Amino acid sequence: MSLWKLKITMYSTLALIIGLTTLIFLALLNAMGVTLGLLPLIAIVILFNLIQWLVAPYIIEALYNVREADPIRYSWLHEIVDKLSRKSGLKKPKVMIADMPIHKAFAYGSPLTGSRVGVTRGLLATLSRDEIEAVIGHELGHVAHKDMTVMVLVSLLPAILYYIGYSLMYVPSRRDEDEGGNLAVIGILLLLASFILNLFVLGLSRLREYYADRHSASIVSYGARKLQLALAKIVQATDKIIRSGYVDLGRYKSFRALFISDPSRAFSEARALSYYRRDYMLVERLKRRKLTTLDLIEELFSTHPNIVKRLKALDQVAAELGQA
């Protein structure tokens, strides 16, 4: 997907999410007649999510034992982040390391903490420094595009619909039974609308992953090729850990949108890697895999694009940038 097509698709998806939410609210207000009761609920949901956004970095660091990377021991990592931040026109984020066995990198932050880029010990032990550089470039793409803020804001919309729908279904009506039944029906419709909007939010998340991949390719020498290999190795290594039974994958699902790939999809994606162990052959043979209907359905509920589609998209980026 070319850059301008990617931007148009991304912005149109964002506009669609906002537009659908606005229409649903207008229909709700028309059906309810009285809107005053909804305003406090909407305000509470917005406030709750904004507070969650502000303090999320502290929660992430407490849950996953994330600490700032020692500037001496990890001087090479700081140098990579510093160099790529300058190329991205960004102030250097804090460099963090998570004591996690899975192989991930992530960008996060809030106005309270500033931007932070983290890598796990598993990733440092698996990838070469060139591949780590490409992964860092991807995460800085998220910082440059303000993806953390954008995704929090668009995620508010289905969250508001969900809580309103839930309250209409389960809060006893103070009026007659017929009206209570009508409100329950409206509540069910709002829950359905929230589910549909969440699919659009996941779609927007996947588009922003493509955008961050392109950013990495543009600031790292032969970044598209390095990132392809890094992604393939990450999927394979994550699958091995999951198969071992040593890691509880559910522990990481809540923050899967932060990671460079979706850990919940590692098992299914690694099936295509099971016979390919040799560097770029791993990537090239994986790209030839034909996507099944199940693959496409799984992708609908994922924060990240299917690995095969993502590697092929990086092929297009490499060609555009002369990295073929």
Which features does this protein show?
globular, 6% strand, 12 helices, 4 strands, 4-stranded mixed beta sheet, alpha+beta, 324 residues, 67% helix
What does this structure look like?
The chain is of the alpha+beta class and 324 residues long. It has one domain. Helix content is 67%, strand content 6%. It has twelve helices and four strands. A hairpin with a 3-residue loop joins strand 3 and strand 4. Helix 1 runs parallel beside helix 6 and helix 2 crosses helix 6. The chain starts with a helix and ends with a helix.
Question: Which SSEs are present, and which pair or pack?
Answer:
Layout (H helix, E strand, L loop, with lengths): L2 H30 L5 H26 L2 E3 L6 H14 L5 E5 L6 E6 L3 E7 H6 L2 H16 L2 H24 L6 H43 L3 H22 L21 H5 L8 H9 L5 H8 L6 H14 L4
Parallel strand pairs: 2-4
Antiparallel strand pairs: 1-2, 3-4
